[in-house]
Write a structure and sequence with these properties.
The termini are far apart. The chain has 82 residues and is mainly α.
Amino acid sequence: MALDNLVQKVQEQVRERFVQANQSGTWTELEKNLQAVLQEVFAKMELVTREEFDRQAQLLGDARMKLQALEKQLKSLETQVK
């Protein structure tokens, strides 16, 4: 969804510049292909949404906490063995 918004914003900005440059006729031709090209470029960039990034960051944080707890437990067991 966020990617669609980005594509739409880029389209609007390009359209505004064409209108300002008095090239509105050229814009109609360009608009036909602009969205498809932008979608393809962004897909190749392998972008992730903010929600996915936050979810992965949370999972990483959880894993880090579990690892720290296991390291503490291991140290405790090692001292008991000695």
